[in-house]
Amino acid sequence: MDANQTMERQRDDHSTGGFGEDLTFHHLPVMCTEVVDVIHMVPAGLIVDATVGGGGHAAAILAARPDLHLLGIDRDEAALNATAAHLAPFGDRVALHRSTFGDFSEALTVVDGLQISGFLFDLGVSSAQLDQVHRGFSYRNAAPLDMRMDQRQQLSAYDVVNDYDEADLAQILWRYADERYARRIARFVVAARPVIDTSALAELVRQAIPAPARRRGGHPAKRTFQAIRIEVNGELDQLAGALDSAIDRLVPGGRCAVLSYHSGEDRIVKNRFDLAATGGCTCPPRLPCGCGAEPLAVLPRRSGWTPSGDETKNNPRAASARLRVVERIERRVGQG
Fold this sequence. Notes:
Elements: H1 3-16, H2 32-39, E1 45-49, H3 56-64, E2 68-74, H4 77-86, E3 94-98, H5 105-108, E4 116-122, H6 127-131, H7 157-163, H8 166-177, H9 182-192, H10 198-208, H11 211-214, H12 222-233, H13 235-249, E5 255-260, H14 263-278, E6 297-298, H15 309-314, E7 322-328
Parallel strand pairs: 1-2, 1-4, 2-3, 4-5
Antiparallel strand pairs: 5-7, 6-7
């Protein structure tokens, strides 16, 4: 098979499943107890799970609070199908909508009339997506270079790996994964094109990273796969706007909770939550505000929460998680 035939076969694999298809979708929710605890005290109304996945967090929230309804949003059709079955016992308390987490305005029309008491964003890739080999999210098995959470979109990991120029590829690795060897990896990848599957990409990354660095920090391809997945799915591009919109839509006492898994995500979450809690105040720290800033929210815990030792032992994928929460407050009289 020549290079052109290889690339055509790779693109065809996006629609056929390529390396085989596992239609199961079992999601192990990260920090589920903590998520339920921080949502438990919100007013009755609607919870928007903007990245509902397999419905693990959603089911726990609904079970804990019978006076809550839930709108589950996800771009992944397999996830929504699994969620529909998982949440069926909750009947008409649940509505589902297929879209990205940054585009939930249309989804809210499905549940018009309910006050929004909470938002949940569980960022990144789910354990179910990693375990579905044919989706190409994992570096541990040979699979198509896909990584699309929404199979309807055109851009795939294959396009990023094989079509982006060397400088752009290096920039993605640095921006989305803080990859120290971004330039070396990009150079190795470009020289080896066409890269036909995840196994080949993982091996190129291994070769590009010096041996001493490969012996620490987990699998050498972990950061590269993370960065490419974020680029394919535009994850960080929509995050700041989605969080601002979510906070603005909450009723007083409502909460927005976010689970992030790497520094780029967490930095955006922290910045948006700090902005909501300070109103953009520019006054010196520890002095009364004189700039007229109007906070929209408070932070129940400034540093957020991290998983327990028991959870990280039982679910290593939870190790990098951080949960941050912001609570909406009343607007002052005269505030827009």
